[in-house]
Design brief:
mainly alpha; 3 helical TM bundles of succinate and fumarate reductases
Length: 154
């Protein structure tokens, strides 16, 4: 806009950039969208891995080697965090769709529950994955009675 004298008025940028401080609900909303994008990209990586497995041993070994590298493991870990965050936050949105949890204190509690659920599910999934990767490290209690009988007979 211009003033009556023909000079251009200096208007501020959108007030949200200067006035409002980030709130948990807005940060979780932005994170939910970013995780959706990360899931899309990560799903392409998982798809490439599955196609390589269907293509043949050489292709699978090449892609699997990358997935086992530090960077590949980092990508899969990030994908799993995004997956569980998106899942937990989607459940929170389902509650909102029913008209629940709109009071600010409930919205914050639900936000903390989303973060706790994300950490718990990610830790559980990776714990199971890493625990099953090294079966020789499993305690004897996980063996069946038949396995213990065979070992005792030897």
């Amino acid at each position: 806009m211009t003033s009556q004298t023909g000079e251009k008025k200096q208007r501020p940028l959108s007030p949200h950039l200067q006035v409002y401080k980030p709130q948990m609900t807005s940060v979780l909303s932005i994170t939910h969208r970013a995780c959706g994008v990360a899931l899309s990209i990560g799903t392409l990586l998982v798809t490439i891995w599955l196609v390589a497995a269907a293509t043949g041993e050489d292709a699978y070994e090449a892609v699997s080697g990358f997935m086992r590298s530090g960077f590949g493991t980092f990508l899969i870990f990030g994908w799993s965090v995004a997956l569980f965050y998106h899942l937990c936050n989607g459940i929170r949105h389902l509650f909102w769709d029913t008209g629940r949890l709109f009071k600010i204190e409930n919205a914050y509690r639900a936000g903390y529950a989303v973060l706790a659920g994300t950490l718990l599910l990610t830790a559980l999934a990776w714990g199971v994955a890493l625990y099953s990767k090294f079966p020789e490290d499993k305690p004897a209690e996980t063996q069946t009675l038949a396995q213990l009988d065979v070992q005792g007979a030897e």
